[in-house]
Amino acid sequence: MEATPNADHVFAALADATRRDIVLRALAGREGVVELAGHYPMSFAAVQKHVAVLERAGLITKERTGRRKVVRTNVEGLQLARSLLDQYEALWRGRVERMTNIITSTEEAHTCLSLLSARIPKL
Amino acid sequence: MPVTAVGKDPEALTMTLTAEFDASPTRVWELWADPRQLERWWGPPMYPATFTAHDLAPGSRSEYHMTGPTGDQPRGFWDILEADPPRRLAYRHGFAHDDGTPNPDLPGMTAHVTIESIDAGRTRMSIESGFPSAEAMERILAMGMQEGLAQAVGQIDAILAEGVAA
Predict the structure, then answer these.
(1) Could you state, in order of their start, the residue ranges of all structural domains in chain A?
(2) Which residues contact B71 (CB under 8 A, 6 or more apart)?
(3) Does any CB of chain B come closer than 8 Å to the CB of residue A118?
(4) Which of A104, B20, B110, B128 is surrounded by the fewest CB atoms within 10 Å?
């Protein structure tokens, strides 16, 4: 059963260093839970729990290849976390651009005024 | 490019954006402090903002609404947490009902603005935005998307107008 990535679950799942490492290793999609567990100084059950959290968050899926089940990262889940912040960045980039335009236009207005007052000293 | 750096921390749910301007810190502060100037950059061209209350003093509340192309008027407010002109500003942003009262059902966020002189006539401004949860961020962005879309539409309009002129 493939879970749809949900932002809260994705961020919570990625808050743990072991789980982030599992996500990176599972990009290759070659190892099962048993092989993954071999990389960490913790019990198989503990690794299995981490895998379950990632699976619920939609960050990894278990796929059957032949007689084995391999763990594979769902790149879409990772992108969700990134894209939310990207959208917010775009919003602020727009604001900063408008701020720059305001500063530039008032400077031009000042230059205009000082040119005018230079020509008409008693303005 | 005025934006010099963007740092995103998906775990801490913060985004820090840094920009530089050819202006003094006092001039950059004015962009925030003067409601008439603030209105010119807060909302995108298709969603101009109108601030009906604005005073950058701790404890003060700013109120604004934006007017969309179909006449829709999303409302929001800032609660000023900290103000040290022209160096620091911190506020909590929230959305409001049509009558202007805060809508606690919609998520809030906090912003910390730092303005500092880096050279004669050059100023760095950084804004750290913090979201209470990923769900809150998602909802805030969903509301902002309306603005983003309007902005894109505005750009298309401008391109079409240019094409006609040429």
Answers:
(1) 7-77
(2) none
(3) no
(4) A104
